[in-house]
Amino acid sequence: METVNETAARVPTSYWAIAVVGLLWNSFGAYLYLMARLDPDTALAAASPALRDYVANQPIWANVGYGLGIWGSFLGSIAMTLRSRHAVWLFAVSLLGVILSHLGQALAGVLDAPLAITIFVVVAFLWFYSRKSVEQGILR
Predict the structure, then answer these.
(1) Nearest in space to 108 (alpha carbons), one of 66, 53, 68
(2) Measured by CB atoms within 10 angstroms of the end CB, which terminus of the chain is less buried, N or C?
(3) All structural domains of the chain with their residue ranges
(4) Which regions span the lipid bilayer (predicted)?
(5) pLDDT tens profile 52-108
(6) How far is CA 128 from CA 1, 14, 35, 66, 120, in A?
């Protein structure tokens, strides 16, 4: 039977780098989400009038998607740092949320395509990487 120290020794440094960078990235997203909810005037001061109007009046399904995207990814990153296999489904929920949120923005004509693509790629990568980490026995 393998000891905890032997298992910890097999976790590559690259895993920890990805987990920590992912947590930092998603912590910033969680901060922005909270700021947009707690102090929207300040958080959106530099945004276009169209984007401010969208945030104030977005459809509930897009709003739910935004929350799922942010919090699924944030919790997925925490799960990665704890080496929990639950990271996989949390990132999958986040991907669904990202798609819904960006669809709402696209339909309203306020989608920032380069940012949307970057967010989608990061979350998709974290989902894929966490799946591979389960297969390798890194996530339990």
Answers:
(1) 53
(2) N
(3) 4-135
(4) 15-34, 60-80, 87-107, 113-130
(5) 999 999 999 999 999 999 999 999 999 999 999 999 999 999 999 999 999 999 999
(6) 29, 15, 29, 21, 12
Q: Give the DSSP H or E segment for 106.
A: helix 87-108
Two structure tokens written together for 82: 């704890």
Residue 53 has a CB neighbour count (10 Å cut-off) of 14
Mean pLDDT of the chain: 94
The pair of structure tokens assigned to 93 is 């929920």
Q: How many angstroms separate the Cα of 120 from the Cα of each of 50, 80, 83, 127?
A: 23, 18, 22, 10
Closest CA to 91 of 1, 41, 19: 19
128 in Cβ contact with 80 (< 8 Å): no
CB 80 within 8 Å of CB 23: yes
Q: Find, among 95, 123, 105, the residue nearest to 25 by Cα.
A: 123
The SS3 call for residue 77 is helix
